[in-house]
Design a protein that fits this description.
The structure holds two protein chains of two kinds.
Chain A: E1 5-15, H1 54-66, E2 70-71, E3 74-75, E4 78-81, E5 91-94, E6 101-110, E7 113-126, E8 130-134, E9 137-141, E10 148-154, H2 161-177, E11 190-199, E12 210-215, H3 218-237, E13 245-250, E14 255-261, E15 271-272, E16 279-280, H4 283-291, H5 297-306, H6 311-319, H7 321-328, H8 337-355, H9 366-377, H10 383-395, H11 400-406, H12 415-428, H13 430-437, H14 442-454, H15 461-472
Parallel strand pairs in A: 12-13
Antiparallel strand pairs in A: 1-10, 1-11, 2-6, 3-16, 4-5, 4-15, 6-7, 7-10, 8-9, 11-12, 13-14
Helix pairs in contact in A: 1-4, 2-3, 5-6, 6-8, 8-9, 12-14, 12-15, 13-14, 14-15
Chain B: H1 8-16, H2 22-35, E1 42-45, H3 47-57, E2 71-75, H4 102-109, E3 113-118, E4 138-139, E5 142-146, H5 152-159, E6 165-169, H6 176-182, E7 185-188, E8 209-213, H7 216-226, E9 256-260, H8 270-285, E10 289-293, H9 301-316, H10 335-346, H11 349-362, H12 366-391, E11 394-398, H13 414-419, H14 425-430, E12 434-441, E13 447-454, H15 459-473
Parallel strand pairs in B: 2-3, 2-6, 9-10, 9-11
Antiparallel strand pairs in B: 1-3, 4-5, 6-8, 7-8, 7-12, 11-13, 12-13
Helix pairs in contact in B: 2-3, 5-6, 9-11, 9-12
The chains are: A alpha+beta, B alpha/beta.
């Protein structure tokens, strides 16, 4: 029976988060009226020439740095010539010969072990326009034409759909956290192609590969690779073979379908783009870019755990960039980070979700959050009380102490007052006191409940329990 | 009315004293163009707009701008907003652009009046303007002869004295060769001196816009307007404004000039070589040193040019597909049919031939074998020029191997037509500035041009020598002696 080793390589196209397009000053935007973000350059008008957006080079350098790539000090652009209506000049400006970054890697965790996914190259290119087919007509929207892309190509080094998924998740997280791209697969700002082949043994040369194009989500990448491996296994097991081909993943069929068999010698007639001079990248520029890289996900998770936050919560925080960024502003503070994480992921997240807002848009300043964390961790504020005043905390400009005071939930921290109150309750509940003395555990819980009820929850429960026990044992 | 035959200073002074108005010059230009209609110098006239603009200029202060109110003709591969730009091709026959080329903006800012768009080889591909979809222009010195190309229409209208100024473009001699054939002054500036933004690209790494005029001084004046960095063109050089007339009138004593032996070999007619020899003597008599020098690679220039220019052209012309602008066939069967039929019907023979050869040259491994190799030999050729300029101020030679030939000469030998440009092409390959200056007439009474090549960005020294010779030779360069028009 079949016992094949799959080999998978992934190509990712990723739109860069720049203000303007790569070769013109049109806005780089999504979801606008068709053809409203275009000019004569984007339309490939006769006589127009490309300019070069420096932001693109810097973001590509950044991507190369976070993917541990080497960066080419001198590079140029090339023309890839092919006719298609989505390609306004009928050539695409790309980098065929001198990709800006090469020879890098990304680390993923597979079954608890670290695996390096080799990055063959990163190159810069322009996006094509978007075509929509309506019956016999094709509509063209050039808003996307000239949006800057980087293409990240791995070495053929993955062996399962799961590895491909882990790689893409890691890549997405890295590019997102370094502000290189939005990485919104649903909007097409990140798109993946998978190259899949299988063979019996690693000593055997690679067999025919199939390329699955433009897969719309990470889970579908995994699924389509698994389906494709199965398809190829079945063919080989029957003693048959198949030609090199391009396939796509069909959501409805939940399987890959053939798009076209690859023609031999697809000829793009590459040559160096004569309209753009060679680009020189200095070490100084690279260092400038390096400084703009904020703390990356792995380091964030590690840092959080070091500060006492649980592994689960550390992961959850990194999944929520806004909260993680918020917390990162506080790393130098002397607060209980476990409490801080619980607050952010608990009550605060619930509030933000309910209100559909972001933490930076609320009135929860850093100072306020520190005060709140401290109050919770030293138990001057109970979580029950917090729930009552949370909305006010998030929406008013007042300090936590002011809010607490105004809400009339001053915590009773005066021992004498608590003792007096407990003594009064014990007097009123002599039966339970007797039960307690007779060894009935339930009795103390009941009494504690009465204490909290009397105090309207404003007592520090630990302190109250201690005094209650003391009084009962007198 | 013969204002347009006066010197530019005289015209300027008349305008300044309000003895004439810009509209007088514009009207006179259109009368002359009308009288010279059979020369076929223009594809599109801009009469209505030009008159309107001239009228508007009456409200404006003339100042010291010598070019104020003067009509100018623009080659039809330079984009003009709201004014048809055809590239002499069926595929752009009705193409009305929505923006202006940078040079067009500059001539407008300098209050010049665009009079029309001049005839040319289709997409500037040719050496006699006979590949024009609108028929070839005729040489004002002899209507049986070609005006050269590809800027044949611009050369024709200047030679015929319709206007004083025209823009040409030069990829492989397309300004200098027609200037030589028609007895005018044509300058191809250093690559990068003038912005290419809005020039419909033929071979991007070679194309350059330049001035075509009846004399050297006016040529330098127009270059003053055209030159300068442009952020819209990354290949435009970061050179600040300079006055290209500044060396005009200076003596040439002590100037060191080289003549490459190849330029005086038997590829050039004896008659033309003799005229260049006479210039050499004249220069020597006046204190310049003129030496023959050996230069490598010059004989390879045409081959390199064909590879680079056709390769780039095949890509540059891909955008003409009938989808966003230009000609498009009716009811194509499918997408391939749309491309094939539109381009088959839209382009002329020579253009299609060059696209096909260019596509072949870039295809598969050919790009490395041919295009990249050509680029590297081109660097060597540039170094060969650099070596000469270590010891010499300028290089001279004939602009063309013959004088203008008959319009009826066969066109079916494409490689022969490139030989028309064998002397001018090396200058494009090296990115250097070069100018053609009329120095004599042949036995056929057709003009002969001297090619003056300068070091990179040293157009000013070229103008210095050209104006010196112009004054010494003092040729009568007006073919319209008997006042054929008006």
């Amino acid at each position: 029976m079949s016992n094949y080793i799959p080999t998978i390589g992934i190509e990712v196209h990723c739109e860069l988060k720049t203000k303007t397009k790569i070769f013109s000053d049109s806005i780089n935007g999504y979801g606008q009226m068709a053809n409203s973000l275009t000019n004569v350059i984007d339309l490939g008008y006769p006589g127009t020439l490309p300019t070069l957006n420096k932001e693109v080079i810097n973001l590509a350098i950044k991507a190369a740095l976070i993917l541990n790539c080497k960066i080419r000090p001198v590079m140029h652009f090339d023309r890839k010539n092919y006719f298609y209506p989505d390609n306004p000049k009928n050539y695409q400006i790309t980098q065929a010969e001198t990709p800006i970054g090469y020879d890098g890697y990304v680390e993923i965790e597979v079954d608890g072990k670290t695996k390096k996914i080799g990055i063959e190259e990163i190159h810069i290119e322009e996006d094509t326009c978007k075509s929509t087919h309506r019956g016999t007509k094709t509509l063209l929207d050039f808003n996307r034409a000239g949006v800057p892309l980087i293409e990240i190509v791995t070495k053929p080094c993955m062996e399962s759909g799961e590895e491909a998924k882990l790689y893409l998740e890691k890549l997405k997280e890295l590019l997102f956290y370094s502000d290189v791209s939005d990485c919104k697969m649903e909007e097409g700002s990140m798109r993946a192609d998978a190259n899949v082949s299988i063979r019996k043994q690693k000593s055997e040369p690679f067999r025919t590969k199939a390329e699955i194009k433009n897969i719309g989500s990470i889970s579908n990448v995994k699924l389509s690779i698994e389906k494709e491996i199965k398809r190829q296994e079945e063919i080989y097991d029957k003693g048959e073979s198949f030609p090199p081909q391009t396939r796509r993943f069909d959501d409805k069929l939940n399987d890959t379908v053939l798009m076209r068999v690859k023609e031999t010698g697809n000829d793009y007639r590459y040559f160096p783009e004569p309209d753009i001079p060679y680009v020189h990248i200095t070490q100084e520029q690279i260092e400038q870019v390096r400084k703009t890289i904020s703390m990356l996900p792995d380091e964030r998770r590690k840092t959080y755990q070091k500060l006492g936050i649980s592994e689960v919560n550390a992961k959850k925080l990194v999944q929520n960039r806004a909260l993680s960024d918020y917390l990162n502003e506080l790393l130098e503070e002397k607060i209980d980070f476990k409490t801080a994480a619980n607050l952010l992921l608990g009550d605060i997240s619930a509030y933000l979700n309910k209100m559909e807002t972001e933490i930076t848009k609320t009135s929860l300043t850093k100072e306020k959050f520190i005060e709140l964390t401290n109050d919770i961790s030293n138990e001057t504020l109970t979580s029950k009380n917090l729930k009552e005043i949370l909305t006010t905390i998030m929406e008013s400009e007042k300090s936590i102490s002011e809010i607490i005071k105004e809400a009339g939930i001053q915590n009773i921290t005066d021992n004498t007052a608590i003792t007096e109150m407990i003594q009064k309750i014990l007097k009123e509940n002599q039966d339970s006191v007797v039960d307690y003395k007779n060894g009935k555990d339930r009795a103390i819980k009941y009494l504690m409940g009465q204490v909290m009820k009397e105090s309207k929850g404003s007592l520090n429960p630990k302190m109250a329990m201690a005094i209650l026990k003391e009084e009962l044992n007198k | 009315m013969k204002y347009l035959d006066k010197s530019i200073e005289e015209i300027h002074s008349l305008l300044k004293k309000k003895e004439i108005k810009p509209i007088d010059l514009v009207e006179e230009a259109f009368e002359r163009i009308e009288a010279n209609k059979e020369l076929n110098a223009y594809i599109t006239l801009n009469k209505e707009e030009a008159l309107k603009k001239a009228k508007k200029l009456e409200e404006k202060e003339i100042g010291d701008n010598l070019l104020f109110g003067l009509p100018i003709a623009v080659k039809d591969n330079i984009i003009t907003k709201d004014l048809k730009t055809t590239c002499a091709s069926h595929i752009l026959e009705n193409f009305i652009p929505i923006y202006n080329a940078t040079v067009v903006e500059r001539i407008k800012q300098n209050d010049m009046v665009i009079i029309g768009k001049t005839n040319m080889d289709e997409f500037a591909m040719g050496s006699s303007s006979r590949t024009s979809y609108f028929g070839a222009p005729k040489n004002p010195w002899n209507k049986e002869k070609i005006s050269g190309g590809s800027s044949g229409g611009s050369a024709t209208t200047i030679a015929a004295r319709d206007v004083l100024f025209a823009l040409g473009t030069d990829t492989g001699g397309s300004i200098r060769q027609p200037a030589s054939y028609t007895g005018i002054v044509g300058m191809k500036p250093t690559y990068g001196r003038v912005s290419r933004y809005g020039l419909v690209a033929f071979a991007s790494s070679l194309d350059q816009i330049g001035p075509m005029t009846r004399n050297v001084y006016e040529n330098a004046l127009l270059l003053n307007v055209l030159a300068g960095p442009d952020e819209k063109d990354l290949t435009s050089a970061d050179k600040e404004y300079e006055d290209f007339t500044r060396k005009i009138g200076k003596d040439i004593k002590g100037m060191k000039i080289a003549i490459p032996n190849y330029f005086m070999s038997d590829i050039v007619t004896e008659e033309i070589r003799n005229e260049v020899e006479k210039v050499k003597k004249l220069l020597e008599e006046n204190g310049a040193t003129v030496d023959y020098v050996d230069m490598k690679y010059l004989d390879k220039a045409v081959t390199l040019y064909q590879i680079i220019a056709m390769g780039e052209a095949s890509s540059n012309l891909a955008r003409f597909d009938g989808i966003r602008y230009g000609y498009r066939v009716d009811s194509p069967k499918d997408l391939d049919d749309l491309y094939l039929e539109t381009r088959k019907e839209g382009f002329g023979k020579e253009v299609k031939r060059r696209i096909m050869v260019g596509s072949y040259l870039l295809s598969g491994e050919n790009a490395k074998t041919y295009y990249n190799k050509a680029l590297s030999i081109r660097d060597d050729m540039k170094k060969e020029f650099d070596k000469v300029f270590e010891n010499y101020d300028l290089i001279i030679g004939p602009t063309t191997t013959t004088t203008a030939y008959d319009l009826t000469d066969p066109m079916d030998d494409p490689s022969k037509s490139f030989m028309d440009d064998v002397l001018v092409i090396p200058v494009n390959m090296a990115g250097l500035p070069g100018l053609s200056l009329p120095i004599a007439f042949g036995k056929d009474k057709m003009p002969i041009g001297l090619h003056i090549i300068g070091n990179s960005f040293d157009e000013a020294t070229i103008y210095q020598l050209a104006s010196y010779l112009e004054k010494k030779l003092n040729l009568d360069l007006n073919p319209r002696k008997d006042d054929e028009h008006v």
